[in-house]
Amino acid sequence: MSRKRVAVLISGRGSNMAALIEAAKPADFPAEIVLVLANRPDAGGLSTASAAGIATAVVDHAMFGKERAGFEHALQAALENHHIELICLAGFMRLLTADFVGRWSERMLNIHPALLPSFKGLDTHRRALEAGVKLHGATVHFVVPEMDSGPIIAQGAVAVRDEDSEATLSARVLAVEHRIYPLALRLVAEGRVQIAAGRCLIRGAAGPEGAFIVPLGPA
Ligand code: GRF
Asked: Which domains does the chain have, with CATH numbers?
């Protein structure tokens, strides 16, 4: 089976992008990262991608002003140039129109730093700490027009500690992100993910037994 051609879309440092590139290195991984595309010329991940030998492109949203259609037209052209089959949004900080999202329906993934549907939007770690949740984490989902809302492919959880700051919590969640994004991409690229009534059913990938309880009890 041929490997799915993937573009990773970034706006910043690109640590998830780097995790995807690393995971997709072995020839038996079912997807290959063929393009890293940024909407800002100063996105730090661009140099990481180049150093890994991956083609990069910049479609600078600032060049298009408020004109989303023009921006997305340029985005689409870059994706078509590289014969892209799947898109992974990885810290891509532009909202995409329903038109564009519809064109990539069930072929565009996003990672969100919270256990959706909790904490959609920005500042998820600060809000999780304020809410006092004991479990926090990250989610990979298909992109739908409504932000942070599509069918969930994979999630990973961490325990929140009393002494956590935004920085310590986000570091542990980020480590989870770097595991679940390659996993989700693999499952999608292998055709194991089927969407039914807004939920992802995943063939041949059972969840672990047992429960994750926080706190564990008196030490
Ligand atoms: C990650 O926390 C991701 O979940 C969110 O934006 C951040 C991007 O980080 N969507 P990086 O650029 O992948 O390091």
From this structure: 4-202 (3.40.50.170)
